[in-house]
Amino acid sequence: MGGAKLAGPSLCMVGVNHDTAPLAVRESLSISRGRVRGVLNRLRDFVPYGVILATCNRTEIYAAGGDCRSASDAIVAFLRERSGLPEEELSPCLNVAVGYEAMRHIAETASGLRSMIVGEWEILGQVRQALEDAEHERMVNPPLRQLFRHAIRVGRRVRDETDISRNALSVSSVAVDLAARAVGDIGQRRAVLIGAGQAGKLAARAFVQRGVSRLSVVNRSHDSAEELASSLGGAAVALDDLQSEMESADILISCTGAPHPIVHCDIVSDVMAKRQERPLVVVDIAVPRDVEEAVGRIENVYLYDIDDFTQMSKANRRAREREIAKAMSIVDEEMERFIERWRALDVKPVVGELMRMAEEVRRRQLRLTLKKLPPLSDEERDSLEAMTKAIVNKILHNPIRCLKNNGHGDGELVETVKDLFGIDGQEAEERW
């Protein structure tokens, strides 16, 4: 089934991810967790409704309702403004999906099928959080709410009925593996972690579980650093002491939400000058990157960023091919079920608005008629009420039956009914 076969409210997705855009472009569009709701308010100037799915490897915007081409163009303009990149640099990196393809994209994403690390758990919570953020900012209409709730259901079912997430790798576990490649036995090494947010907690836990001999935590908020360090048997270090801590460490992991690099080349050069040729492994899992790219050119420094996870993610995908096939079958099945409900979204608001308008006319005319008649008994008034309702129902019966039976697959019929009865589609959808 393809997007061209899809009738129903228009839907589009525009964004970048690890498959479509280099790290530099993803950095220009990245949105930290704490800034999503503010960015949603800016998005409102481009589209009336939209959901932003922002992770370390993707920034995707979903919109539903109105003209899909106009919405896609508006989102592209929003992304261009946000990135500051010229059109010729940004456009080739954009992933644009409409209709069914956009629906399937979010379902597969929530299922962990489109993640760099196939089957990772975090994405399902991130999809749920994206919907919550948009709802908080009143940027969700019924089609978007249905779409994201469906994607979350599919993601849960895939994980319940397949082993795609069993012993799954994560960004944090891959970070440990990359470090181990360079330094050998993690159990004999000292690590410094910069960042005590959610990503930092996951990374710290992964290193501790692998037996790192000492873990130091550095964070802008020292209280947060102390809380994380104490929970894992590590030590909190003041930000001002980071450089001296790096001098004795074997591994540096950085995962803050800073909008610009915080580990600079000159600092690392000074550190390495005092280490007597002892290597330093730097694992930067932040997007935007925390570590200046030039750090990787310093002698005895082994720098890994999020794009260096690619080789391990490919091996992970190969190992899970059977589970990926099972998961895809579940997505196929769920999409077939959902598509009919989705198509009905175009009909249901129109039917509801048609009935509302007819009822409004009926009540108004009945009030005018009753004013001209002598006082009636309750029984007589009830009879008039029932008669006028019956007339309206009989007049609307065939148009509504025709819409319900044929409108799901015929957008032209729906538009004709809107024109005949003067129904504003956007207003009907919002009322529904």
What is the gist of this entry?
With 432 residues, the chain is α/β, with parallel strands linked by helices. The chain has 17 helices and ten strands. The strands form two sheets. Strands 7-6-5-8-9-10 form a six-stranded parallel beta sheet, sandwiched between helices. Strands 2-3-1-4 form a four-stranded antiparallel beta sheet.
Walkthrough of the structure:
There is one protein chain. The chain is of the alpha/beta class and 432 residues long. The protein contains 17 helices and ten strands. The two termini are 28 Å apart. The N terminus is likely disordered.
Spell out the key features of this protein.
six-stranded parallel beta sheet; elongated; disordered N terminus; four-stranded antiparallel beta sheet
Write the layout of secondary structure elements.
Elements: E1 11-17, H1 23-29, H2 36-43, E2 51-55, E3 58-64, H3 68-83, H4 87-90, E4 95-98, H5 99-110, H6 122-136, H7 142-161, H8 171-183, E5 190-194, H9 198-209, E6 214-218, H10 222-232, E7 235-237, H11 242-248, E8 251-254, H12 265-273, E9 280-284, E10 301-304, H13 310-319, H14 321-372, H15 378-406, H16 411-421, H17 425-431
Parallel strand pairs: 5-6, 5-8, 6-7, 8-9, 9-10
Antiparallel strand pairs: 1-3, 1-4, 2-3
Helix pairs in contact: 5-7, 5-14, 6-7, 7-14, 8-9, 11-12, 14-15, 14-16, 14-17
- How many strands appear in the DSSP assignment? 10
Order of helices and strands: EHHEEHHEHHHHEHEHEHEHEEHHHHH
Low-confidence stretches are: 1-8
Can you list the strand order of the major beta sheet? 7-6-5-8-9-10
